[in-house]
Amino acid sequence: MLVITHSFQQKELQPLAKYYRIDDIQRAIAKIDTSGVRLPNLGYRNGYLVKLRLPHAVAGRLIAYVFIQKNYVIPIVLRLKTDKVIGENLALNNKKAKALIIKNLESAMTDIRNNRYIKY
Question: 90: which DSSP letter?
């Protein structure tokens, strides 16, 4: 089940609304088992991180957290492939990307604890 947190909606999805919508994320999430690249879980025991491509006229990348206990897929970071801040390397060996992933993952967990999310 796709879960869009308030923080993801505000910080990640809204700035890229002219490129991506919820249904684009749903299509990417549907391919999580076949085309997702699993990343280290950064100490979160209840799930794992996965990197996905967003097939669109404008190429994008999505980092999502798969929360196994609740069967939630929670988008964490959404970036254009040509993003100037993170660049093409949206991976944990990129210090800026890793800091952003950790910060957004913490925000997402806070949103879930405070019931600030929508299920799709």
Answer: -
Q: What letter does residue 9 receive in the DSSP assignment? A: I
Q: What pLDDT tens digit does each residue of the chain (120 aa) get?
A: 999 999 999 999 999 999 999 999 999 999 998 989 988 777 778 899 999 998 777 889 999 999 887 789 999 999 998 887 776 678 888 888 999 999 999 999 999 999 999 999
One-letter amino acid of 61: R
CA distance 47 to 38: 11
DSSP state of 58: S
- pTM score over 0.70: yes
CA distance 35 to 15: 25
3-state SS assignment for residue 28: helix
Distance of alpha carbon 87 from alpha carbon 110, whole angstroms: 27
**What's the CA angle centered on 24, arms 48 and 92, to 5 degrees?**
35
